[in-house]
Queue: 2 jobs
Job 1
Amino acid sequence: MAHQSAQLAPETHPPCYVFESPAEMARHVALLIAGIIRERNSLGRNAVLGLPTGSTPVSVYRELIRMHRDERLDFSRVVTFNLDEYCGVEPDQLQSYHRWMREHFFDHVNIPPQNIHIPDGMTPPEKVAAHCRRYEDAIREAGGIDVLLLGIGRNGHIGFNEPFSSPAGRTRLVTLDPITRKDAASDFFGEENVPTQAITMGLATILEARKVLLMALGEHKANIIRETVERPASDRIPASILQRHPDAEVLLDGAAAGELSGWATPWVTGAVKWNEPLIKRAVIWLCEQTGKALLKLDDEDFRTHGLHQLLRLHGPAQRLAHDVFQWMLNTIEYHPAGKEPKRVICFSPHPDDDVISMGGALIRLVEDGHEVHVAYMTSGNIAVFDHDARRIADLVTEYNRLFGIDLEKSRDVERTVVDALDSKHAGKSDVEHVRTIKGLIRWSEAKAAAMKVGCREEHLHFLDLPFYRTGTVAKNPVGEEDVAIIRGLIEEVQPQQIYVAGDLSDPHGTHRVCAEAIFRALWGMERDGKKTPEVLLYRGAWQEYDLHEIEIAVPLSPGDLLLKRKAIFMHESQKDEALFPGADPREFWQRAEDRNKGTADRYNQIGLPEYYAMEAFVRWKGTPI
Ligand code: F6R
């Protein structure tokens, strides 16, 4: 039974439940696991869990740790089997799943060490087969897995069962798929450092678990989730094998459910309760289906596309189309903060999100005479190439030599940097000096870019939030210190409007964490009876809002877009080739332009004015995202 707040997406197999927020999903999963553990404890028996690593289960582990601490959930009879481990990665190495599990879960609960099982990635090749057989034996001897948690890769992998894995597969050595290695690149500071092999539980092992919960969060999982549950099972999508499992469930947030037809277009699968947002969605969808502009839709279009009910209740077509036309027209806003002078803050999770995602709006806000502040929340130092750090260390030393500035000291620093980089092992994090230089590179680029769009230097704030300062891609959860820094800035600047990156598909989760920190600061202010600003959400470099979601669309002229491009160019360390480009081969400025022109095109296709480009925003509704 899914948590009360979850809704069932119709007509999927296995059944999909959509939660209001990732936190709700985590709570549901943790409650279910806690229920099994408590029941077994009362019978004096073990509970056997199958566990994944990755960004998706992090909050489940956090909630279980909280239950252990606050509700005395006793893990002493819990036995665990992890899904997988990279080959050739020492258990203490930053990227090891052994280390990951200790840091995210095992170190914080009372599972006896002998009950914990994780494949050993350091097993010599000639012993791997025997090691895998023993792993299977251990699962059997433990009585089989009671509940197995799974994440899903963008290619549909579960565990490291990559596309075309055999359904009969058991725990074994596998070769990692190129997509998997690309997705892991940032954890290893570069794709070339990602191991080529791993040990994983097999699909047959997974199918034998008594209960399976597949979890997915974020827009970047929406496609693969649709393929997993709405298409016939196929070897190409390993997760689709769960269609055969008698007790599997798929747990999603709204973003990951976004492509399910039962969710995205519920009118296709059954009767729905019509309200304004749903009407907007359905009518815009109808434009896409028919290739027609809003004001050209007729009753017949509604009938032939299964929208009789909408037509009957809210029609005729002309009225529906006109309402949606008017709503969409009202989203177009040249002056997102109005014309009266205001103070605004754009919160930029990384040093380049401001100009990439809302460079055009920043240009307009400055032009409109507002006091525009930008708050850079993290240093972004991990995304700088080593060769750039060397070049800058060299440049600074040479500059100091030319001007006779404390040469000894500066040579010392350069030597430290060069030695550290020379002796750096693939996949290791940087020493403090190198991190500082990399952070300064991004600091200088952010300043240059913001000033290019007209912001003033004194209005740029580099918050360097503590949660990010781990030196690795894995970050700490938001802490009170992060929240206090943000609240301090809001109280100091007293903006009437703020902009927050509200996307969930940032692959490293930094945007999500930054948004959470800002929301917590705002909730704190509300609790203390303080006035809070209007909050607009923008999407980061990865994706744009759907047309029906957009509440404010800021039109950009060719000149605006060119200036925005030049501002993005200031981020030289991310240009031509970024350290963490993600799956998209385009550079950030290209993604931004395609996306902004694409939004304008979509407005035009439904019969609204023809703009050159547009940036899109939605209003924050006061809830977690
Ligand atoms: C990890 C594992 C993988 C991940 C999947 C999703 O132990 O087995 O299959 O579950 O790659 O990863 P995230 O959750 O990081 O998106």
Job 2
Amino acid sequence: MRRIVLFGYRGTGKTAIGTILARGLNVPFLDTDTLIEQESGRTIPDIFREDGEERFRALERDVIATLPARDIVIGTGGGVVIDPVNMEHLRAASVCVLLTSDLATIGRRLARAPRPPLTNLPQNEEIAQVITRRRRQYAASADFCVDTSRTSTKEAADRILSLLEKGVVPAPERAAAFRWFAASPLPAPEHARLEALLTGPDRDVQTRFLGVAGFPCSHSKSPLLFNRLFKRYDLNYHYTRFEDPSIRTIMQVARDIDAKGLSVTIPFKKDVMACVDEIDDAAQQIGAANTVVFACGSAHGYNTDWLGIQKPLAGYKGARAVLLGAGGVAAAAAYALTDLDMEVTILNRTPQKAQELAEHSGCRWESWDAFSGINPDLVVNATSIGMQPDTGSPLRGDQLKKEMTVFDLVYTPPVTPLIAAARKAGCTTITGTEVFIHQAREQFRLFFGIDVPDTAIREILA
Ligand code: NAP
């Protein structure tokens, strides 16, 4: 039996439900807060009062790192989700169930059994604030969600037993989803894999799905990367390709099979915004989302492209930058560069689009041939020039000076004609593969709360 790990805010019923669940499965129940008290010989309120939250979190991390690997139900403290190392330990070879309750119910339960405060706010405000702050991490902790607001502890435990035994997607939805995948241009081995996972007689009902949503998306390296990461972290997931001309259809299929999330690529990054229930601030500002996380019945849109673009530029704060292009990825680049206080000038083939993006993002804009007069520290190519099969370069070699850093967001081929010309001119270069690596790392954290080292992603992509 895989471990069952219960996550959730205080007062959602982890201990009471976990005890009943463990009895039903005939395995032990361990509560991380109780283990911390036993190890330290003090109560949790005493640890908070005498040594503060930081010390408590360190004790919690030690306890979590040594939990048994199987045949057990584990109840966790409400704050374990904020630490990616805890998530790596707790998510490995486990079924993770997020318990949720509405704020009024949590307030009533905590009034009966007070816990040490986490802020100086009145109890109800603290609950609302802390849950909002941890919302991403709670979503990332969930393989399955159970709302305990209006159920008895016995009913909630029965619901978990049922989903462990039968899964959550009924047979007709699984069969319909498989017919849809079978009609899409997937390679034969992937069709067979999906058939086994969705409709096969020996299917594992606890396996869940993620995928890349695009049209086309057969070129995407995300399935290779994510499926290898699932093995590395022992996660019971399968990552596939959702290829269809309509993002609405893809979202419906994803919801029907209770998918955990989607990586969104060309041409859906803008259109997907209308298909999610909530949108992250950065995605809203950029006007595009490349990540959807489904949790507890709702879909959240995020943009990790801008983080992938910004990460290799950490040392370029305040630089003078030229941004070539004014399409979807240029909007993410404009957000990333202005967030680093750069002085950014946008140049684009269609000047009107450069003007629109400049006005939206607080940048300047000029006509394409103004490049030579700007003398930038950094050039970022966000056009599709140089993307296979195109062999062009947005700039000539004689326009590049060795003092410049040239960052090409195009990553097929790995060394584009622009990067080759920049290396010849003696420039520092950053390739589009860096963006892919860092944006995927951020996506993995949104999906599972785990921090993957860059080196692990590089090894897989090599
Ligand atoms: P997009 O929205 O279609 O924008 C394309 C941009 O390229 C527009 O500014 C367009 O100018 C310009 N352009 C296209 N052909 C041109 C040409 N022949 N001459 C001059 N300008 C030209 O595409 P996108 O989503 O922003 O993607 C742009 C590139 O970034 C793609 O190659 C994509 O693969 C790459 N990308 C990389 C990553 C990564 O992880 N490394 C992530 C996302 C995207 P007009 O406005 O004049 O049409």
